[in-house]
Amino acid sequence: MMEEKKNGSRPLVAVIDPNTLSALGMRQILQNVMPIMSVDVFGSFAELEANNPDGYVHYFVAMNVVLQNRAFFLQRRQKTIVLTTSTNPNAQMSDFNCLCINVPEKQLVRSILMLEQHAHAHGKNLPQMPRALEAKILTDREIEVLSLIVQGYINKEIASQLNIGLTTVISHRKNIMDKLGMKSVSALTIYAVMHGYVDINKI
Fold first, then answer.
1. pTM, entire model
2. Is 168 in contact with 88 (CB distance < 8 Å)?
3. Is 133 buried (19+), middle (13-18) or exposed (0-12) by CB count in 10 A?
4. Share of residues in the chain with pLDDT > 70 (%)
5. DSSP, res 34
6. pLDDT tens sequence across 6-57
7. What is the pLDDT at residue 122?
8. What single string gives the DSSP state of each residue in 52-87?
9. What are the two backbone dihedrals, phi and then psi, of residue 83, each rounded to the nearest 5 degrees?
């Protein structure tokens, strides 16, 4: 029986990619998308194998690593997400969920969120968010501003849409980032989608 280990109460995700920069970047994005997860990075399949591989709830794996160890990942294809640099569906592996990493950050974050929603039945099977992130931290007005920020509106457009002053928008924006402890629009996007403040199809 496969034992899925947890770090404290945090499920573990593994990134297996010989490209260190790519692996570290993926870890950062995954930790933003799934703050309830701990992410371990491995430079090779041998490293993963030496660290109780069945303890991970997901593997994000470079395509060449999957090709060289196909039997292992095929047995665990429900938890395997293949990292590919091609957007061409014909160049991707049909037996696995694939994630193209050769796209802008916003698009990559959106793809990971969509994978997460589909894989976990709209988050029903996901572990609970930390209490601090689960609680309603933002005011209704801040939620409106956040929703427009992650949909790509600039401050001036948000002011016009909500019929408020530009300085008020800037002030709300600063308050949102301070309250959530998030500085990037990608992190805000993840927070907004996870809380149902914005439809994933609008980002």
1. 0.67
2. no
3. middle
4. 85
5. -
6. 445 678 899 999 999 999 989 988 887 777 788 999 999 999 999 999 999 8
7. 45
8. -GGG-SEEEEEHHHHHHTHHHHHHTGGGEEEEES--
9. -90, 120
Rg from Cα positions in the chain: 19
| Structure tokens that stand for 57 in this block | 């709830």
CA dist 11 and 1 (Å) reads 17
**CA 76/CA 80 separation, integer angstroms:** 6
Q: Residues 126-143: pLDDT tens digits?
A: 445 555 555 678 888 999
Q: Give the C-alpha separation, 112 to 121, whole Å.
A: 14
Cα separation, 27 vs 39, whole angstroms: 6
Long-range Cβ contacts of 25-28 (<8 Å, 24+ apart): 26/60, 26/83, 26/101
| H helix runs in 99-164, sequence order | 105-119, 131-134, 140-150, 155-162
